[in-house]
Amino acid sequence: MKGLSVDLQLVLPELREPMRRAQVSAPRWLVRIAVRLLRVPTSNAVRVTNERTGSTRIRVYQPTSAHSGAALLWIHGGGLLFGDAKQDEALCLSTAEQLGIVIVSANYRFAPEHPFPAAHDDVLTAWYWLLAHAKELRVDPERIAIGGESAGAGLAAGLVQRIHDEGEAAPCGQWLFAPMLDDRTAARRELDALQHFVWDNEANREGWSGYLGTAPGAATAPPYSVPGRRIDVSGLPPAFITWGDIELFAEEDRAYADALRDAGVPVTTDVVTGAPHGFENWARDAPSAKALVKRAQEWLRTVTAPA
């Protein structure tokens, strides 16, 4: 991540100061340590436990009072290079409490040390763990959604595709915040000059190159590694996709939403004007971020409701 360079007038005024604080310029190893050491909020209405399935670490959020019987598999962001389930603690606590749903938040291995399919296999393992423990968690297997933010949302989209193809118990919806969907964006060198806030195309190229183990934009990519390349998206579950209009992923997110809609998949899009990438996380106290999360949670409430 780099310093500010784009005209601040494009950014919502309420996001400008939080954005300054969100800009990070540090070695990847230091970012990884810092994220793991994050101080996290707490809630008396949600019990948080840490579990492990094989080599995959997961964080489980269980409402202590109201319990809807639904669940969400959540996948954190970090450009496929860093991150931790704890970075989304506020969103997971809020969502579990407001909707009365169980949330399983998955950690996964990072590129470039662990290229595809490592992270993909890790989140698939978390999905199977959730299904295997649905009864003891008091979760209806037919009312589980899959979601994530940024790279995590891209992993979520790829996971939904794989589950669909394998004919297993399908998620009831996909909840995608600013998803990182298409490596071909990283191959577009003309986007480098725009230096998008928070996550620019040079960082994007680093993430995709490490994950794919090759330069982005090749003629083909392994199945499920690049969700935005999938040709046939028919039959996938309903989707909520949100992004900011000034972020790097705006074009690829819009293209994926259009492809889903054209294939007959119910899609709700929520485009926030003047919002840089991931603002609902690093500026979560801003009115625009709170409003987006509320709209997203209402969609999730509806899609996970009993049939």
UniProtKB/TrEMBL annotation:
Q: What is this protein called?
A: Alpha/beta hydrolase
Q: Which GO terms describe its molecular function?
A: hydrolase activity
Methyltransferase recorded as keyword = no
Q: Which residues form the Alpha/beta hydrolase fold-3 domain?
A: 72-280
Q: Which Gene3D superfamilies match?
A: alpha/beta hydrolase (3.40.50.1820)
A UniProt-annotated Pfam family: Abhydrolase_3
Q: Which UniProt keywords apply?
A: Hydrolase
Q: Which PANTHER family match?
A: AB HYDROLASE SUPERFAMILY PROTEIN C4A8.06C, ALPHA_BETA HYDROLASE FOLD-3 DOMAIN-CONTAINING PROTEIN-RELATED
Q: Which InterPro entries match?
A: AB_hydrolase_3, AB_hydrolase_fold, GDXG_lipolytic_enzyme
